[in-house]
Design brief:
Ribosomal Protein S8, Chain: A, domain 1, 360 residues, three-stranded antiparallel beta sheet, alpha+beta, 12 strands
Length: 360
């Protein structure tokens, strides 16, 4: 319920988060996109990617452990393909690289109809949907996936965690038809470790068929989790494999080593990203039913899917509704627990506490 949230001025949130990133050694070209992504996640109600979680991830997988190198420079690998680029991120802060990559893919897709950017030696980019949604808001179809910073998921029928939670995100420029971008965003495990941690802290059980214990037996006890399970058995497993296998083509190494120390300096333990952007015009046959144009055809297709299904939502609708609520109060919305977390951070940094107000 919206009454559970408190309103925090975005400028105050951004000042605190930027201060936190700066204190960790990140440069201005990294702090700005990182702060923006966290604010947009909060604006759209995506709790797992608010700044508190981003800073937590950075502590365990980023600048504190060598998984991310503040101030690193991206290298573009030489290629013979005009609409395809591969980058060596050199462990530069993920959001800074990802926003740059989606902008470059849009630029190339505007010229060539379709474009792809592959990123090697990457640090986690956090909320993948934020990047493709930005492309959709500029009129493009966009897709991204990444390999997660740790292998926490067992393959179908297995016991050893050798896969990441490996997210996929699609966004479509449907605002003229729906009022918001259609956004399909999912991880390939049934739950993530954030959910396990939350259940452990709250003394709650996990959903069925989400995790296994050390003996490979399915468990709902968050304290007994050895590995997570793919969603939908073979479906989630196959989708997670896509990330790992494409990463192998890009330059990603052994999933079980990702995010962990390696004994041989020649081995790699970094993540990869993949972005694809399509100009809608490049897809058009110019041969739509009833002499409709592309936009009218899109509107009719979506209306047909929803006709007779009044309780159905379009993916991206919940995020758009939360964004509307945030914009109505001209603030970012957080729970009391989250505000408390931000203010503990503020105290550590010697930064003014956030002043949160109930939604009127």
């Amino acid at each position: 319920m919206m009454s559970d949230f408190l309103a925090v001025p975005r400028k105050d949130h951004d000042a605190l988060v930027a201060n936190a990133f700066l204190k960790r050694g990140f440069k201005a070209d990294e702090v700005a996109p990182g702060t923006y992504l966290c604010a947009e996640a909060a604006r759209h109600g995506v709790r797992p990617h608010i700044a508190l979680r981003a800073l937590y991830n950075d502590h365990y997988f980023g600048s504190k452990t060598g998984g991310c190198v503040p101030g690193a420079e991206v290298e573009v690998v030489s290629s013979r393909f005009a609409a395809s680029e591969t980058w060596n991120a050199n462990k530069k802060f993920g959001p800074a690289v990802a926003y740059r990559a989606i902008d470059r893919a849009i630029e190339l897709a505007d010229q060539h109809g379709i474009a792809q950017i592959s990123v090697d030696n990457a640090s986690p980019y956090l909320w993948g949907a934020g990047y493709v949604m930005a492309a959709a808001e500029r009129g493009f179809i966009a897709y991204t996936h990444a390999t997660s910073p740790l292998a926490e998921v067992a393959p179908l029928g297995g016991n050893r965690p050798t896969l990441g939670t490996n997210p996929h995100s699609w966004a479509f420029p449907t605002s003229p038809a729906l009022g918001f971008p259609l956004l399909v965003d999912w991880i390939t495990s049934n739950i993530d470790m954030y959910r396990v941690e939350s259940a452990r802290n709250a003394g709650k059980e996990l959903p069925p068929e989400s995790a296994i214990d050390n003996n490979g037996q399915v468990t709902t006890d968050p304290n007994a989790v050895h590995a997570l399970l793919p969603f939908g058995t073979h479906k989630g497993y196959g989708l997670s494999l896509i990330n790992e296998v494409l990463a192998a083509f890009i330059g990603g190494s052994l999933p079980s080593l990702r995010g962990r120390l390696t004994e041989d300096p020649r081995e790699k333990n970094t993540a990869t990203f993949y972005f694809q952007v399509i100009h809608p015009e490049a897809l058009s046959s110019n041969n739509f039913g009833m002499e409709r144009n592309q936009l009218d055809n899109l509107k009719h297709v979506l209306a047909d899917i929803l006709r007779g299904n009044p309780e159905s939502n379009i993916p991206g609708q919940m995020e758009a509704q939360f964004r509307h609520q945030s914009d109505q109060v001209d603030a970012l919305l957080f729970t009391q627990e989250e505000v408390n977390g931000f203010n503990r951070l503020a105290q550590e940094l010697g930064h003014p506490a956030l002043q949160a107000k109930p939604i009127s």
